[in-house]
Structures are given as C-alpha cells and as structure tokens.
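Form 7-S
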Amino acid sequence: MAAPAAGPMAAAADRRFDFDVIVLRGARALLLERFDLLRGLGSSHGESRTIRDAYPDARYPPMVRLARRLWEGAEAESGRRVLTPAPLLSLGPRSDASVLAAAGNAGAEEVGDLAARWGGAFRVPDGWVAAVSERGNAVLNATEAVRMFQALAAKKGAVVRDNAEVVAIRKGPEGGVVVETSTGEEFCGAKCVVTVGAWTSKLVKSVAGVDLPVQPLHSHERELSAEAGFPTFSSCCAPHFVYITPSLERPGMIKINYHGGPPCDPDSRDLVSGGGDVVERVARWIDEFMPGRVETAGRPVDRLPCMYSMTPDEDFVIDFLGGEFGEDVVIGAGFSGHGFKMGPAVGSILAEMAMDGEARTAAEAGVELGHFRINRFDGNPMGNAKDL
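Output:
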C-alpha cells in the first residue's frame, strides 16, 4: 500500500498524523507495507524475474522499454546491480498469430537450427517457430530490486513503514484522504496510491463498494538444473504458456512454470501444495520440449510459492478510483503475472497521476493508458478480452 505522508505533524497521543501526499516526486511521502519490507507473501520476492518485450499485444512493449530505461537509471543512482542481460527465446506453433506477434514485437529473429544453441537443450516440434532476441532482455533480481527502491525512497526523504496493514481509506473532512491501519493509526494526505496486489479486490470493495475483478491465483515456480548460459524463454500459446528464467538464486539451474494457477484467498492460501498439479504439468512439458536434458523422474529441487493478481483479460488496472474519491485515490493492480518488470514505469505513472492528474511520461513513451481503465469492466466482465 502506498499511502500519504512523511513527518508526523500531530500529537501521537491521538494516533493521527497529517501529511501532504504519497510517494511522489518533490513531495513528502509515506509507504505503508502490510508485511515485512522484504517478505515472500506476495508476488515480488525471490531473485529471478524476466524483463522482456515479447508481447502479442503491441500496447505493452512501449511500457517495457520505458521500464527498462528506469531500471537502468535506478541502478546507476543506487550503485546496485539488479539486471543480468540474457537472450530471449520465443517458441510456438507457426500457425499461432500470437506467437509470431510476440516474436516480432520483441525484435526476435527466427533461428533455423536451434539444436546448435544452448547445447541443443530444446526440441522444436514440426510446424513450430523458434525466434531469438539478443537485445533488451534480462533477468531481474526481484528481492534486490525491492531493496533498491526502498533505499532510494528513504534517501529521497520518504518514510517507509512495514507491518502496517491498511484497513480503511476515507475522504478527509477538509478534502484529501485519511488512511487507517489495523493498529488504529490514521494518516491524512492530499492523495493516495493503492498497490496492494492480491488484496486489491478486498480493500477496494470495503473502501468504495467497487467490485474490481482482480482474482488472486496461487502459483508454484519450479527450479531445475540446466546448462549455464540458459536463455529466458516464453511460449505464448495455449496450452503451453510456459516461461523459463535462469536462476540467480541457484546458478546453473532454471526456474520454470506455467503462466497462471488455481484461484486462492490471499489470507488463507496453502503455501505447500496450493499450486495444484503444476509439478506434473511442468514435468510433462520438459519431457516433450527438453527431452533428455532435465531429469523429471524425481521431485523439483525447490518449489517457490507466489501469487498472481489476475484480471479477466490479464491487462493491468491503472486508474483513478473515482466516485466520492475522484482523483484523490489512484489504483495500480491486476498485474496478472507480468507486472514486476514494469514496476518503475508503473510507479512513475501512478505518481504523476496522483500529483498532476495525468501521466505525461507515459504519453511521451507511447504508452496508452486508456486500455487499463477500471470502467472497461462495466457491463463487460471480460474487459479487453474481446479486443484480443
């Protein structure tokens, strides 16, 4: 939860604090985190995420490119390294338009003989296309990235509070918003940005009575041994929507999973077996597409639980909450398993929306935000899915 603040002005006796705004440039700011600052209970932990612009939907690559520039800028400013360059392999049926579009949007070039790459780790079925992009793709160290941005926020004067669960947001008596935590603390500010991931639907429903269709899904990522120098990988075709990332946690191994998972309640999910039959499905995929390269007879080396926050159309929600809150509350949610790489871009967009009422950085980068409005679900529970 990103919420108003910095520097308490009122007496702590009544547990009420007055602030200006949220995590915004040039303004006093407060970040409220429900759990520990570097926790593993959501979608932004571990050390291996992929940044790639292999999207079938051409509306996403501009945001990826904006995010990449901001990632590199944050690395330079912080002196930390969170990006490790890696090639991208896209694989799928030649007859599938989404596969060809994703490869084209990533600038990937078709490879005639994949057996000569990466020790022949992949088997390409007849009628399938394999395309490789050598530019702009990388593996992100997720936990280090979160640590980097928390440190940069504190360096710029923001207040970062952990174990602060937000239970209510309401209009302030003289405008702005009041945010209340489970301990009874209240923070007053002009603006509020809500980015609570899998808890978005619950909070937005309780705050504004709005049914935002963001469904938490339970996902288990599987890490298996593979040869060094393995590429990031994506296959954008059903039923083989699989991704692979070289593991930074365990060098020489790979992280692999299907995109998606079973629905779950973020407050009561099974962290051990909640991912359903993902191990068996991943093993079958490996046996078909990487035969003889990875041992699947045993169990995975590790299973790492995380959550997706899925919208019906798998597009983000980036919008003002509206209603009685007007433009004082901004929502960033529903990142549907492909949002971490966009973090710096989405953060900049949300901040500009809260401070300026518009996101000029997005417009300058060619990012069209109309696609991410909340009202796309009005009378149409599938949102943008009809546009695909």
